[in-house]
Write a structure and sequence with these properties.
The structure is a single chain. By secondary structure, this protein is mainly β. The chain has 7 helices and 49 strands. The strands form 7 sheets. It has a 26-stranded mixed beta sheet, with no helix packed on it. It has a 13-stranded parallel beta sheet with strand order 22-24-26-28-30-32-34-36-38-40-44-46-48, with no helix packed on it. A two-stranded antiparallel ribbon has the order 1-2. The longest helix has 22 residues, at 2-23. 41% of the residues are buried. Residues 1-7, 10-33, 224-238 and 704-709 have low confidence and may be disordered.
Length: 717
């Protein structure tokens, strides 16, 4: 009896010790603390070392109601031991000079994710390699730079390592060979150009996912002389069981190395786009489990036949675009797969419409652009798939009409640069991008007013067609419209007032129509406008003073070849980020404002504001401006570098403001065909990047002959 009591007592003592050591639960009045004190202090030290943690770490604190660190945002503790085992701080917008060494006190941490924060472009600290209990380390897009520390090879328990979207480099990947448990590796966007990457990857026998896109990897020849015997035996007898390979955007010219990386019956996803490959992997026809194949933007040659695709029963995503392939597939062939995504853009698919696509009744994205396809679209095509959401048939020679009613599931349609005719198809509420430019569509576009519910429309381009009638006055339903191009048609009437209700508008191009009347005052509500091109119309009235409402982002203001009169309002100088100002060929009078030195983008030859607009949004293809006396169309790449002021062919009087000489970044200045008088400021010669200076057809009293590319200065009228 006594012995049983002793055993029971010892058992109770054991349970108490376990609770103290592992559960770490103390009671002090009504307060219960489950978090380890040392780990709580370590986390607070990590927070203190940050430059800015914002409000997102507000749950981390020393207050009584915040003492349990297991309840802090981004912190996960073990349900058994109460130790911190996971730290998920991705997308927290944290700012710091580097990762704090306080994390070394988290001895049981298995999962660390600091992705999408900002650590100041500093190196990944070497001490991270001492956190040997880590199984998952993610530092995606966290603004790290420098050499990847080889000490990461000490993390022998790692299952996943993701350092992508930083500015890292490595000259030696020997440390990788120690990570024998690694199943997922992502070093995308790192510079691995000086490494023998393949030799080290082949040693990671647990690896399932390999992602090295945009990492400057080179071709590596694998032979018996370049690897040790054991490695060679391993390569040839049991290649890695990789299920995902992403080697896109590199300098690979041969698929030789790729053939060593996988067993065909394991591979699910293969991304090789953006390389210089000349042939497909030899074992392509054996990828029986392949779901995704992207080999776009290479130099692939040869013929694609059904034998290349017959065994790809599970294929869902196929991208063969931008290659030099030849397709030899019989019209009656029925593929063994049902695709969700298909892109054959710029891949020599034409001149006939590929009829095997008729079998793809589940496709939701289809791109056949740039293939010289001619003739009419088969009637079956417009009801191909009830799931179709994005369609691109642009840059072909397709003719015929488009049905009035197209799939209500479509969110994007691009049939630009073809020979389509007839009326434009009806818009439906789900459409986001509607690109019909450079065709032969005709008639009115009043049909866009038939929908009286809110549209999701983001981009509308009907330019370079034969459209007529007035521009409809129903834009209040298109509150998300950002890009509007109706230029080079035959529209007449006034600019509709409801365009002013589209506050999201960034680009408005109504160039070369027959529009008349004054600018509607409602446009001042479009304060996000960055490009206005309404040149080549019959618009009248004064340039309104409310034009300063565009001051925040306006970069391109093109009002040339209209009938505007009156003086140039001084408020135009509030458009401080202007790059192109073209008011030429109007009837403007009065003096040139003396405040053009407010155009800060033109003061410095090294800055441009329009680059973001024109590079990010592919919808902005070009703009027409006067250059060296004639209208020139500037495409995206050159337009964003152009800095120009053109006030020519007006009725301006007075002297040339001295402030022009401060515009050091100006490339073209045209003040010709006015009634300007006085002396030419000699400081104009200090405008170093000025290529075109035209002051001709004025009443100026002197000349300037500096070393500009094109100079025209005369006193004649």
């Amino acid at each position: 009896m006594f012995e049983r009591k002793v055993i029971s007592g010892k058992f109770l003592v054991f349970i108490l010790l376990v609770c103290i050591e592992y559960c770490h639960v103390f009671s002090s009045g009504d307060e219960v603390i489950e978090c380890m004190e040392s780990e709580r202090e370590a986390l607070l030290g990590f927070k203190k070392d940050l430059i800015n943690s914002g409000d997102i770490l507000s749950s981390w604190g020393i207050e009584d109601d915040k003492r349990d660190c297991c309840k802090w945002e981004g912190v996960e503790c073990s349900n058994i031991t109460a130790h911190v085992i996971r730290l998920r701080l991705d997308f927290f917008r944290l700012v710091g000079n580097n990762i704090s060494s306080f994390l070394l006190e988290l001895h049981y941490l298995e999962y660390l994710d600091l992705s999408y924060n900002d650590f100041g472009g500093n190196k990944i600290p070497q001490f991270v390699g001492s956190m040997k209990q880590l199984q998952h380390l993610n530092l995606i897009s966290s603004n790290f730079s420098g050499v990847i520390p080889p000490q990461l090879g000490n993390l022998t328990n790692l299952r996943t390592l993701d350092l992508s979207l930083n500015n890292l480099r490595s000259e030696n990947l020997d440390w990788l060979s120690h990570l024998s448990l690694l199943s997922r590796l992502d070093l995308s966007d790192s510079n691995l150009s000086d490494t023998n990457w393949l030799q080290h990857i082949l040693k990671l026998r647990s690896l399932e996912e390999l992602l090295l896109s945009n990492s400057n990897i080179q071709d590596v020849l694998v032979t018996t002389s370049s690897v040790v015997d054991d490695d060679y035996l391993f390569v040839n007898s049991s290649s890695l069981s990789l299920s995902v390979i992403n080697l896109s955007e590199n300098n690979l010219t041969s698929s030789h190395a790729i053939d060593y990386l996988f067993r065909p019956n394991h591979l699910r996803e293969l991304y090789l786009g953006g390389n210089k490959l000349k042939r497909l992997p030899t074992s392509l026809g054996k990828f029986s489990k392949l779901e995704t194949l992207n080999v776009s933007f290479n130099s692939l040659q040869g013929t694609i036949t059904k034998s290349n695709l017959t065994r790809l029963h599970r294929l869902k995503w196929l991208d063969l675009s931008s290659n030099s392939l030849t397709f030899h597939i019989s019209p009656g062939w029925t593929p063994p797969f049902q695709l969700d995504y298909l892109s054959l853009a710029s891949s020599n698919t034409g001149p006939h419409f590929p009829t095997w696509i008729r079998t793809q009744s589940s496709v939701n994205s289809l791109d056949l652009s740039g293939n010289n396809i001619s003739g009419e679209v088969p009637k079956w095509f417009w009801s191909l798939s009830p799931s179709l959401r994005t369609l691109n048939l642009s840059h072909n020679q397709i003719s015929g009409t488009i049905p009035h009613f197209i799939s209500s599931k479509l969110t994007s349609i691009d049939v630009s640069f073809n020979n389509f005719s007839g009326h434009i198809p009806l818009l439906h509420p789900n459409i986001e991008t509607f690109q019909l430019s450079q065709n032969m569509f005709s008639g009115s576009i009043s049909s866009i007013c038939t929908i009286t519910t809110t549209l999701e429309l983001f981009s509308l381009d009907l330019s370079n067609n034969q459209l007529t009638g007035e521009i409809p006055n129903c834009w209040e339903y298109m509150y998300q419209l950002t890009f509007l191009n109706l230029g080079y048609n035959y529209f007449s009437g006034e600019i509709p007032r409801t365009l002013g209700s589209v506050s999201s508008l960034k680009v408005m191009r109504l160039r070369n129509n027959n529009l008349w009347g004054e600018l509607p005052s409602t446009l001042k509500n479009c304060q996000q406008l960055e490009l206005i091109d309404i040149g080549g119309n019959m618009l009248t009235g004064n340039i309104p003073s409310w034009i300063s409402a565009f001051s925040q982002d306006m970069a391109y203001l093109i009002l040339n070849e209209n009938r505007f009169y009156g003086s140039i309002p001084p408020e135009i100088c509030n458009l401080t980020r202007i790059q192109v100002l073209d008011l030429s060929r109007n009837s403007l009078s009065g003096q040139i404002p003396h405040c053009f030195n407010s155009f800060t983008e033109l003061l410095d030859k090294g800055t441009t504001n329009g680059q973001d607009l024109l590079s990010y949004y592919y919808y902005v293809e070009s703009a027409s401006v006067q250059w060296k006396g004639r209208e020139s169309v500037y495409r995206k790449r050159t337009l964003r570098l152009l800095k120009l002021i053109d006030l020519s062919s007006n009725k301006l009087v007075g002297d040339i403001p001295e402030t022009f000489s401060s515009l050091k970044g100006l490339i073209s200045l045209n003040l010709s065909r006015n009634s300007l008088t006085g002396n030419i400021n000699p400081d104009i010669g200090q405008m170093e990047v000025l290529e075109v200076l035209d002051l001709s057809r004025n009443q100026l009293s002197s000349t300037n002959t500096n070393q500009h590319g094109t100079i025209a200065v005369s006193g004649g009228s």
